[in-house]
Amino acid sequence: MDKINVDHMLAIEEPFIKAPLEQLKRVVRQSQKQTERETSQVSAALSGLAKDKGNTAEAHNTLDELINRLQTLKRKLEEVRDEESLLIQRSKQRATDLNQLSSFESASQPEFQRWSRARLDRILVDFMLRNGNVKTAELLAQNGNIEHFADTSLFLLVMSTERELRENHSCSSALQWCAENRSALRKIQSSLEFELRLQEFIEYIRQGQNPAAIAYAKKHLIAWSDTQMPRIQRAMTLLAFSPETMCPPYRSMFDEARWDQLACEFRSVIFCLFNLPPQPLLHLLLQTGLSALKTPACVSDDSVEHNRNCPVCQADTLGKLARDLPLSHHVNSNLVCRISGEKMDENNPPMRLPNGYVYSFNSLSEMAAKHGKIRCPRTNESFILNEAKKLFIS
User: What is the pLDDT of residues 140-179, one digit of tens each?
Assistant: First the structure.
């Protein structure tokens, strides 16, 4: 029972180790593309100067512009180098942290307890960042000295883009991100960029700028005709409707709720690209434990069947996480007293009251010592202790 299942823990921690590596891959690719684009343009300009033996002053101006351009590129590459070094360092720190698991022999070791505490802190930091509690997350990370375990910059990007979509109704940041990651989006067959372009097309129509909407469609929507032609055709039909239309297919396209849908889709796509689970790791770990506790009594419509000591039975708290989980499968059952939450066994045998309900001997004895009688918490009937009969479970 005390042995650590390293393989299972590493499987759960896969996003923890992959997130900085995915960020590093994208930073390297983007800097490589930018370098190739700038150098090719500079080379083309130099070739043109070599062929053109015209105005010397104009050639000097062109060379100055190219030098400024290369200096700007150098500054950007220095920033990229710093970012790459930070991501490499984070990857090493995370790998070192997970490698400690192989050195622990049991879950009772003080070293493993300290490691688990740090792990819990970073799981809570991840949960807070996902919910927008950035300052609290940063404070917890600083106190636990685990800043290198927090993907703060990634979540800040997500939150700022979501805010721009939901509050400012602007797609500019999201579209810029899509342009930088177009090849990756194509690999996962994401239609996020199309949805953003479609929303900008809809906004032109909402503002009564139909000619601008048509020009925008020709420039940006027609490129998606191979995969999105039915939706493009429906979108073009919007030109014949006003934003106040009650026609269901087109009313939904004018609905302001589309901005919330775009924000959710952006979050989903960026999590997919960086190998982050759609729900917090805290939820996944809690559901793992809750699934082992869920029984038919937990989902019974009769509240009498619910156990006050069972977290799954608390419908307003942890019960929400357990709602869609399957029932647990127990080969050997344990009897637990509803009053005390203690296990009923030979040292604390189950006792049956005349009304048929069963409680532990220790709970009934304690109740009788305090009040002189036993009161069933389910029916409020009163009995004396001698009326309870000991049960023998075979």
Answer: 999 999 999 999 999 999 999 999 999 999 999 999 999 9
Q: What is the average pLDDT value for the chain, to the nearest integer?
A: 89
Nearest CA to 289 among 256, 318, 331? 318
Q: What angle do CA 309, 315, 318 make, to 5 degrees?
A: 70
pTM for the structure as a whole: 0.76
Q: Residue type at 302?
A: D
Q: Is residue 320 within 8 Å of residue 290, measured between CB atoms?
A: no
**Which of 109, 102, 104, 158 shows the shortest CA–CA distance to 134?**
158
Q: State how far the Cα of 69 lies from the Cα of 64, in Å rounded to an integer.
A: 9
Strands (E), the chain: 350-352, 358-360, 374-375, 382-383, 389-390
On the CB side of 151, CA atoms within 13 Å amount to: 27
Which DSSP string do the residues of 266-289 spell out, in sequence order? HHHHHHHHTT--SS-HHHHHHHHH
**Distance of alpha carbon 370 from alpha carbon 358, whole angstroms:** 19
